[in-house]
Amino acid sequence: MRRLVALLLVVAALPFTARSGRAQDVSGLYQATAIVTGSDRRYRNVGFARCLREVLVKVSGEPRLGRDPRVDRLAAEANIFIGSFTYVDQMAGIKHKDDQGTYDRPFDLTVRFVPALIDKILADLGERPWPGARPAIVPVLTIRGYSTAYALTAETPAGADLRTSFAAIGRDFGMRVRFPAASEFDAAGAAGPSTGQSSPGDAVVAGTLVFERTLPGWVGAWQMRYGGVDYAWGIRGVNFDEAFRDVVRGVVRVASGHGAPD
């Protein structure tokens, strides 16, 4: 309680512009959603902790905060940084068959943190909110699965699930994802990623995602030029969700000015 009072005093002392004078609407960066079991208190704190880690990464643009041991203590008391939270039953409309079904249903727990408190945490960690407009991630990826290969364009029917996954992961990091049309994909593939961004608001990532049976798992290799600098990174032996998360983490770290992907 003493810590909460102290934090609220810090918020009250901050200039009004720090709370309401932002150049753009960033309110969505200060909220996150975690899937939890039931809507009672059993898993609530676990959900709060996950959401706090996601928000710290999303607001700062530093993916390393997600696994920073300094955040462990903060995550354990994440409830004191929260403005509000809500639950949505993923199985709403499906009749409960027994008492167990009343409690063990999956819920989306959406947590909205107090922006000034999150900004204060970041300052204490030597970070700050990522200022300015963020680029859209434009993945120029070739997918080679079990028996098929295709370009992950905006129109490719085979890539529907992958596009949904990629876009959702982008939102987790506060980033927009724009899939190229077939004509854009062909042009980018012919020119190569080192020719630069297709527009000032884009971060173009070229690469391949290949399923290796011997691992088993997906192997991703990515290249990007951003701010006149070339970057290359990759990942092995993962599912495609984690492969796309690796792409987004790398772009976020570079575009926010924190350094090369790791």
Please render the helix and strand layout as text:
Elements: H1 2-13, H2 16-20, E1 31-37, H3 44-60, H4 70-76, E2 82-89, H5 99-103, E3 106-113, H6 115-124, E4 136-144, E5 149-151, H7 160-172, H8 182-191, E6 202-212, E7 217-226, E8 229-238, H9 240-255
Parallel strand pairs: 4-6
Antiparallel strand pairs: 1-3, 2-3, 4-5, 6-7, 7-8
Helix pairs in contact: 3-4, 3-6, 7-9
Briefly characterize the structure.
The protein has helices at 2-13, 16-20, 44-60, 70-76, 99-103, 115-124, 160-172, 182-191, 240-255; strands spanning 31-37, 82-89, 106-113, 136-144, 149-151, 202-212, 217-226, 229-238.
List keywords for this structure.
single chain, five-stranded mixed sheet, 262 residues, globular
Describe the structure.
The chain is α+β, with helices and mostly antiparallel strands and 262 residues long. The chain has two domains: 23-124; 136-255. It has nine helices and eight strands. The protein is globular. The two termini are 38 Å apart. Residues 1-24 and 190-198 have low confidence and may be disordered.
